[in-house]
Amino acid sequence: MKKKGANGLEKRAIVTIAIGTKFQKLASYTHPFLRSYADKCGAEFIVIDSPRLSDRLGLATYERFQLHDLLEDYDRIIYIDSDILVSPDSPDLFELVPAGVMGVSSEEKYSMSGRDKRLTMEILGEVAWKNPYFNAGMMVVGREHRELFDVNNPDLFLWATGEFRKKHVNLLNDQPFINHRVNKLGYDVVDLGFRYNHTRVITQTHLRFHSYFIHYAGPSGHRYGERSEQVRKDALVLDSRFRLGMSRKYPFYRWVADRLDVGFVAYLFREKLFN
After folding, report:
1. What value does the mean pLDDT take over residues 117-136?
2. Which of these, 59, 101, 165, 177, is most buried using a 10 Å CB contact count?
């Protein structure tokens, strides 16, 4: 599908990954919102559901490097993880992010970015790190950024399979590599702010519905309890103008509603009983 943009006809896609039972279950709640967002943006909706790189790189998260081939066919892509809910009133990021620039959400102030930057440069070499460290669960990229996802880059294989991982067991997988690579390649990046990638590192989780992209990364998500259940319940909020309006207008209502949730109460019970 093509949409006329500022520079003529631009072929756009919203791309996500859903490989394995866990993510397919999450996708059953998030993909209807992603599909609607793609329609809103005049973009095709593409789900990467078949592993092509796991034999070489291991984990399914590296399948996002399939963007390399997709960027041969599309002018611009918004990549969105399948554990992200997109609010129906989210603006069109293709219109907010200038062509030729990457659009991301910095988590420089909230995460272990300092450690990740230091380790990537120790392992992959020093770079002029001019851009903020971002969460790779949402990225607006264009054909100019195709080299970022080159699966034949020897540094990628080193990063995914290197012996250093036995020592740094808590080091994230492709996200630090992508950040290092963006700076090595000298790309221009615009920080869209956490409202376009609201993860658990933004500690005031009861304000998550003020954001457009709610990201349930990590073991705890936002509500606590099983992640797919959290996403299912929050999808019901996004589907209800009343509950969404209440959650945005009255943060205390959302704080109380989260803590009265059965999943949260069960989480507290398990924590007290087994810890």
Report:
1. 93
2. 177
What value does the mean pLDDT take over residues 240-263?
93
> Do you know the residue count of the chain?
275
Helix/strand number for the chain, H first, E second: 11, 9
pLDDT category of residue 2 using cuts at 50, 70 and 90? very low
To which CATH superfamily is domain 2-196 assigned?
Spore Coat Polysaccharide Biosynthesis Protein SpsA; Chain A (3.90.550.10)
> Using CB atoms within 10 A of its CB, is residue 182 exposed (0-12), middle (13-18) or buried (19+)?
buried
The whole-angstrom distance between residue 244's C-alpha and the CA centroid of its chain comes to 22
CA 159 to chain centre: 20
pTM value is 0.92
Which residue ranges make up each domain of the chain?
2-196
Structure tokens at 108: 């420089």
Amino acid identity, position 97: V
**Cβ contacts of 269 within 8 Å, gap of 6 or more:** none
pLDDT digits (tens, 9 = 90+) for 29-88: 999 999 999 999 999 999 999 999 988 888 888 999 999 999 999 999 999 999 999 999
